[in-house]
Design a protein that fits this description.
Layout: E1 2-6, H1 10-21, E2 25-29, H2 33-40, H3 51-60, E3 64-67, H4 70-76, E4 79-82, H5 97-109, E5 114-118, H6 126-137, E6 144-148, H7 158-163, E7 168-171, H8 175-184, E8 192-195, H9 197-228, H10 232-240, H11 261-274, H12 280-304, E9 311-315, H13 330-340, E10 344-348, H14 353-359, E11 364-365, H15 369-373, E12 378-381, H16 386-389, H17 393-399, E13 404-407, H18 414-419, E14 423-425
Parallel strand pairs: 1-2, 1-4, 2-3, 4-5, 5-6, 7-8, 9-10, 9-12, 10-11, 12-13, 13-14
Helix pairs in contact: 1-3, 4-5, 5-6, 9-11, 9-12, 11-12
Bound molecules: nicotinamide-adenine-dinucleotide.
């Protein structure tokens, strides 16, 4: 099939490359000229494992092309996938400016039937609004449908997630829309869940909020463990073996970040309250998540006493491993707090340092994790990248001024740290202190 993708971001580019892998022909519209120029040189403006190779393969085979003209994409595909961003506004509601602009461009350039598919994460009833907007601006009597096809990929494993999804959700309100969506996903080996458009829109927000709730539950348990002397990892292990609960997303840490969970949780609360349904269970998720980092900072401050002029090493800047995405990254919030307190920071991340440098040009960007520790009064771990989990703690100890680690992801080898006589603070676990 010929398919159009609007927005060459984390979702749009992965969608384009994976649809091409399944045999479709794709035109991607991107209005950011710098990003587009990069794509035309074979460069992707963000890091996502496996994406570059897959995209190169299909660009070379001419199954994926790029354009700056969104109107060209309206003409090209039988289905048009809207993959633009929906960032939160200052009140925590999703800003629909970009989606609305795309709806108007589609209307103004619509000549024949098209299926307009919202893949961006949008509040319930957005499809109705897109339909109304296109209906207002369209010239003549051209038919179209609007479908919802939420995206569940995870940054860091987005290609794999998209090629082998657990399920594909299609919200449709006509037989023609359903049949086109089934054709798009013909090559995918997974259940296709066909629902009403509104249910499909809600599935996305409900799924993300539920996952965020699981993380938040583990973080709340961690507090209880710290107060009672229990160990959160032992507790969630015991819980997660029950397949009704599962281990997924049941780890304690310094809280979730990223472009999706914080925004989607707040959006669900707003949508619910606007519809007259109180949402205390959803509100408590983001409140607990925010205070999780504050508690971590309080531990650092309590142990180090005066932060002014202390040198601290930070491992991990991205909001999670295998991405260079800094949106809502806990490490960035922590850096702000530590800088305000006068600490000097030596930071490391396998891929997110160039992006961090744009926001914080004044930090020391280390050549490797050990270099970050050089002469530092303590090490703080914010992202559980594999190299940090496997780090040689003897070298870390020898490089730090004081052998003290604040592990915000419970990813450092506790046994080894104890054997080496290091001090280690985790989340929801008793600290390891030499001589105690
Ligand atoms: N990033 C994720 O992990 C993820 C996962 C699932 C769902 N989502 C949702 O998918 C949507 C997109 O997220 P993202 O992370 O890919 O965003 P992004 O910021 O990475 O990419 C959006 C792209 O759209 C482009 N764009 C905006 N308006 C345009 C227009 N009129 N014409 C052409 N290009 C235009 C922007 O320049 C940008 O490159 C959001 O609603 C997000 O919530 C994201």
């Amino acid at each position: 099939m010929k398919l159009s993708v609007i927005g060459a971001g984390h979702v749009g580019l992965v969608t384009a490359a994976c649809f091409a892998e399944k045999g479709h022909e794709i035109l991607v519209a991107e209005h950011n000229v710098e990003r587009l120029a990069g794509l035309n040189r074979g460069e992707i403006w963000f890091y996502e494992p496996g994406l570059k190779e897959l995209l190169h393969k299909h660009v070379a085979a001419k199954r994926v092309r790029f354009t700056s003209k969104t109107e060209e994409a309206v003409d090209f595909g039988q289905a048009i996938f809207i993959c633009v961003h929906t960032p939160p506004d200052p009140q925590g509601r999703p800003d629909m400016t970009y989606v609305e602009a795309v709806a108007r461009t589609i209307a103004e350039n619509l000549k024949d039937y098209r299926l307009v598919v919202e893949k961006s994460t949008v509040p319930i009833k957005t499809a109705e609004r897109i339909k109304r907007t296109i209906g207002r601006y369209v010239k003549g009597d051209v038919h179209f449908d609007v479908a919802s096809n939420p995206e569940f990929l995870r940054e860091g494993s987005a290609v794999e997630d998209t090629l082998k999804p657990d399920r594909v959700v299609c919200g449709v309100d006509s037989a023609k829309a359903e049949s086109l969506m089934r054709e798009v996903y013909k090559g995918f080996d997974c259940p296709i869940v066909v629902t009403s458009v509104g249910s499909s829109e809600l599935i996305k927000h409900a799924s993300n909020s539920f996952l965020a709730l699981k993380i938040t539950f583990a973080n709340w348990l961690a507090r209880l463990c710290e107060a009672s002397g229990a160990d959160v990892e032992q507790v969630v292990h015991g819980m997660g073996l029950d397949h009704r609960i599962s281990h997924h997303f049941l780890g304690a840490g310094i809280g979730y970040g990223g472009s999706c969970f914080p925004k989607d949780v707040d959006a669900l609360a707003h949508i619910s309250e606007e519809l007259g349904v109180a949402a205390p269970i959803i509100r408590v998720i983001s409140e607990t998540n925010k205070s999780q980092l504050e508690r971590f900072y309080a531990t650092i401050e309590r142990e180090l006493w005066v932060l002014n002029e202390k040198t601290l090493a930070i491992w991990g800047l991205a909001f999670k491993p295998n991405t260079d995405d800094l949106r809502e990254a806990p490490a960035l919030r922590l850096i702000d707090m530590l800088k305000k307190a006068g600490a000097k920071l030596r930071v490391h991340d396998p891929v997110a340092m160039p992006n961090t440098r744009k926001v914080h040009p004044d930090l020391y960007y280390a050549n490797d994790p050990i270099d970050a520790c050089n002469g530092a009064d303590a090490l703080i771990v914010c992202t559980e990248w594999a190299p940090y989990k496997q780090a040689d703690l003897a070298k870390v100890k020898a490089t730090l001024k004081v052998p003290m680690i604040f592990d915000g992801r419970n990813c450092i080898d506790r046994k080894r740290a104890g054997e080496l006589g290091m001090t280690l603070f985790g989340i929801g676990k008793a600290p390891i202190k030499p001589g105690e």
